[in-house]
Amino acid sequence: MSVDSAVSGHAMRSLRLLLEAYAGCELPQWDLFASNTRLIRIEAGDVLYSIGETHPYIYFVQRGLCKAQMLTEGERLTTVFFPEEGDVLASMSALGVEGIRRVASRGLHPRSETLRAAVRAETVHTVTAIEPTLLLRVNYRVIDHLATQHMQWARLTTTIALMHATTLQADAGWLRSTPEQRYRSLLKEHPGLVQRITQRDLASFLNITDVALSRIAKRVRGDALTVMTADNLDVDDEEDEDQPAALPASALA
Question: What's the rounded Cα separation, in Å, for the pair 92 and 115?
Fold first, then answer.
C-alpha cells in the first residue's frame, strides 16, 4: 500500500462534486478538507485495514474493487460487501463517534451488546483489494470538526449516514431471498460486478459453498438457454406467417 500526500486536482474536483451532491450545496473551508486528504494505492491482495484495528478513516473509492469480510460465529471470514468506484467506505464502528459510544456503553440501545466494537472504536471488517485500487482517504475527525463549524458539512454527514442506512435496509430485504434469487438479482442488477469477482468470493457473499453456486449457475444458464430457444422459435413462426401461402396443386395445373 502506498500513501501519497499529493492528490491530483482532477481527483479532488471529482470528490468535491460528489460530496457537494450529497450536501446539496457548496462546502465551506474546502481547502482544510483537501489538505488533509491522502491518495491511497493498493494492489490486488493488499489489505487496507483489518478486524480489530483503530482506524478512524473514511475512504472514497476512485477506481478498482475491494471485498469487505467479517468473522462469523465459527470464526470464519465471510464476504459481506464489495466496495467499488463511487462508494464511500469506512468501518463505522472504528470512527469513534462519541454519541454512539456513549449510548452503547450505557446500555441505552437495545443492541448495545453487539456494539462493543463501536465502544472500543475498532474495525469489524477486513478490507482487501480484488483489483488495483485507488482511494482518497481523510480522517473522520476532520469532517467531524468541519461539521461542528458549518451546517453544510453537518448536512453532508447526515446524508451519507442516511444513504448508508438506506442501503442496509435494501440489503436486509435482499438477504431474505434464497441464494438462487440473490444470484439472479446480482446478474440482473450488477452483471459487471459478477464478472469482476471470483466464484469463491461470490459464493462467500451469497453464504453458500462453491459447489452450491456451481449448481445454481448451471440452472440459471439452462433457463437462459431455454428462453433464448423459445424466442428463436417465436421469430421463426413469425417469419413463416409472413411468407406467401403455398398455392394448391390444382392451381398450378
Answer: 11
Are 16 and 30 in contact by the 8 Å Cβ rule? The answer is yes
Q: What three-state secondary structure class fits 91?
A: coil
Q: For domain 2-176, is the CATH number 2.60.120.10?
A: yes
- The span from the CA of 48 to the CA of 42, in Å, is 7
Q: Is the dihedral of CA 15, 163, 83, 42 positive or negative?
A: positive
Give the pLDDT confidence score for residue 228 in this predicted structure: 58
Q: What percent of the chain has pLDDT over 90?
A: 67
Strand, helix or coil for residue 117: helix
pTM of the model: 0.84
Residue type, 178: T
Give the tens place of pLDDT for each residue, 204-236: 999 999 999 999 999 998 887 776 565 555 545
In terms of Cβ atoms closer than 10 Å to its own Cβ (0-12, 13-18, 19+), residue 242 is exposed
Among candidates 40, 69, 44, which has minimal Cα distance to 139?
A: 40
Residue the block writes with cell 441464494:
179
Give 99-139 pLDDT, tens digit per residue. Answer: 989 999 999 999 898 888 888 999 999 999 999 999 999 99
Among 53, 59, 79, residue whose Cα is nearest residue 67: 79
- Contact between 168 and 92 under an 8 Å Cβ cutoff? The reply is no
